[in-house]
Amino acid sequence: MEKKTAPIDRSKHVISIKGLKKSFGDLDVLKGIDLELYQGENLVVLGRSGTGKSVLIKVISGLLKPDDGMVNVLGMEVDKLAPAELQELRLKIGFSFQSSALYDSMTVKENLEFPLVRNSKHLSRKEIDLAIEDVLDGVGLLQTLNQMPSELSGGQRKRIGIARTLIMRPSIMLYDEPTAGLDPITCIDINNLINEVQERYNTSSIIITHDLTCAKSTGDRIMMLLEGRFERQGTFEEVFNTDDERIKTFYNYNFTV
Predict the structure, then answer these.
(1) Domain of 145, in residue numbers
(2) Residues 107, 145: contact at Cβ < 8 Å?
(3) Where does residue 134 rank: exposed (0-12), middle (13-18), buried (19+ CB within 10 A)?
(4) How far apart are alpha carbons 85 and 239 in whole angstroms?
(5) Residues 6+ apart with CB under 8 A from 209
(6) Which of 38, 52, 112, 163 is the most exposed place for a label (fewest CB within 10 A)?
């Protein structure tokens, strides 16, 4: 499925990264990368496993510190923030994990109310219940309210994980391999949901993936991370219209194997 054109404000950067470097011992993972995420944009970062995609979003969210370079998120330089300031920024960033990260001992309702009760103590019981119903409706799973995670399919757990992130009304969504481990039909459902979240909640998103169908379906712009550097960016067609054998091999593995 082709990505529909989204209303993107290219005059406003919600994330701006300049010269970002990150190493682990002698392993140079990110080698001086630049990235801009515009307001309302779905930006896909493509790359093979181990190329630094997940490291990138951990740096953006302050879970890892850069070795060099500038990482500005919503007007704040992440590595210069005090712990309380960083915590406040993280409330504006939604992180969708590969595993969905639901609490197995809690119902869907309890999983969704947990971040609200923890971070928005001023809300009434009615306001919390309305917020839960709204995000469950947004991901199409109102009927799962009182179910346990173990009773849900992999795709449903992924949707509930996204709903739990959305309940805090983040400005930015970070999706880490959102279609990993899912069957092809469920992958289509998740790709559609990512686009619906962008439209309904006016989010700006970075989608980390090696799944080209996900990239083509969700990305307003695509950046290709190879060997610690962004080698190409643009539309799906622009990125893969190249004689670079590294990129051609990546494309052929996804679509011809």
Answers:
(1) 102-169
(2) yes
(3) middle
(4) 37
(5) 44, 45, 46, 53, 175, 177, 178, 179, 215
(6) 38
Q: How far apart are CA 156 and CA 139, in angstroms?
A: 9
pLDDT digits (tens, 9 = 90+) for 169-203: 999 999 999 998 889 999 999 999 999 999 999 99
Residue 97 lies in a domain: no
CATH number assigned to the domain comprising residue 84: 3.40.50.300
Q: Which amino acid is at 226?
A: L
Residues 122, 107 share a domain: yes
For residue 4, is it within any domain?
Answer: no
The model's pTM: 0.91
Q: Which two tokens stand for residue 14?
A: 């919600």
Angle of helix 125-138 relative to helix 108-119, nearest 10 degrees, comes to 130
> Is 145 in contact with 108 (CB distance < 8 Å)?
yes
Last residue of one domain, picked from the residues 117, 147, 169: 169
